[in-house]
Design a protein that fits this description.
By secondary structure, the chain is an alpha/beta fold. Helices cover about 55% and strands about 15% of the residues. The chain has 10 helices and 9 strands. The strands form 2 sheets. It has a 7-stranded parallel β-sheet, sandwiched between helices. A two-stranded antiparallel ribbon has the order 7-9. Helix 2 crosses helix 8, helix 4 runs parallel beside helix 5 and helix 5 runs parallel beside helix 6. The longest helix has 29 residues. It is globular. The termini are far apart.
């Protein structure tokens, strides 16, 4: 009797999955209204250059209140100047080492006092040493994890309460294509980006099980190699199809994903589907495709 009941319950769940799939396909066919982000208080880590700077400019253009956070005060101030030239909205600069938990907690208190409670957190900061595992020093590996992983936890500890107090919010974490595919010369970096992916998936479940379901949204982004200076020696076999991305375009896609409330996205979007498809194949088949594409990074040593 118990087995029959379990089978029936599974059948009901399976029908619900099929209905959800059809609804998702129908939803994609319809023109979806994008979220209005004007007036949102958006905090961006690593805003001093690259994708972080372009995100600050994009959010400013949409009328958001933008809080730029970076360890490099000069670069961060330059981002704010560019944003204010673009539109005279509220843009703020804070210097902070986001790998330092105490510094991030103090930053949260200061931001709330001077600007207000944030409603959007963009965890963008990251570093990318590119050489074989055995040539990474212990200090280097620890720093990669401090910046690429632990800084996300400190930011969540500091700013997730802002969203819970408001009963709404959106958390956007920038992982990497190296967070869905392992790559040579990027072992510690890949490990950190896979960690971000796992953290966001688990946090999604935690929020979904509690009172903030559908109130605090999450988006994780996996960009392909981007022309920000992190990829010092990129290896690209098909530059016309898989050349380095423009950080302006990456930022545009991230903001679009935010406004669309997308859970996860690769940039370009096709890479997520290709990866998911390859994971269904025997390992050797996936490796053959990977070897054919032959993209990645050379050692920077």
């Amino acid at each position: 009797m118990d087995i029959a009941q379990d089978v029936c319950e599974f059948f009901v769940v399976f029908i619900k999955i099929l209905l959800e799939l059809f609804l998702r396909i129908f939803d994609k066919m319809m023109t979806k209204k994008l979220k209005d982000i004007s007036g949102e208080i958006v905090l961006i880590t690593g805003a001093g250059h690259g994708i972080g700077r372009e995100l600050a400019l994009h959010y400013t253009a949409f009328g958001s209140v933008v809080i730029c956070v970076d360890i490099n005060e000069k670069n961060n101030e330059e981002t704010v100047k560019k944003a204010k030239r673009l539109m005279q909205t509220s843009v703020h600069a804070y210097t902070c080492d986001v790998s330092d938990r105490e510094a991030v907690l103090k930053l949260a208190v200061k931001v709330e006092s001077e600007v207000g409670r944030i409603s959007v957190l963009v965890n963008n900061v990251g570093i990318m040493p590119t050489h074989p595992l055995e040539q990474h020093t212990a200090k280097e590996i620890k720093r990669v994890f401090d910046i690429n992983v632990l800084s996300h936890f400190w930011a969540l500890e500091a700013f997730l309460p802002h969203m819970k107090q408001q009963g709404r919010g959106h958390i956007i974490c920038i992982s990497s294509i190296a967070g869905i595919v392992g790559l040579t010369n990027l072992v510690p970096y890949c490990a950190t980006k896979y960690a971000v992916r796992g953290m966001m998936e688990a946090l999604h479940e935690e929020l979904r099980d509690g009172p903030y379901k559908n109130l605090i949204k999450l988006t994780v982004v996996y960009p392909y190699m981007t022309n920000t200076g992190l990829c010092k020696r990129p290896k690209v076999k098909f530059p016309s199809m898989l050349g380095l991305l423009d950080p302006k375009e990456v930022a545009r896609q991230i903001v679009l994903a935010h406004r669309s409330s997308v859970n996860e996205i690769t940039i370009p979007s096709s890479l997520l589907h290709i990866n998911n498809w390859c994971r269904l194949l025997p390992l050797r088949c996936g490796l053959l495709l990977k070897d054919y594409i032959d993209s990645g990074v050379e050692s920077d040593l």
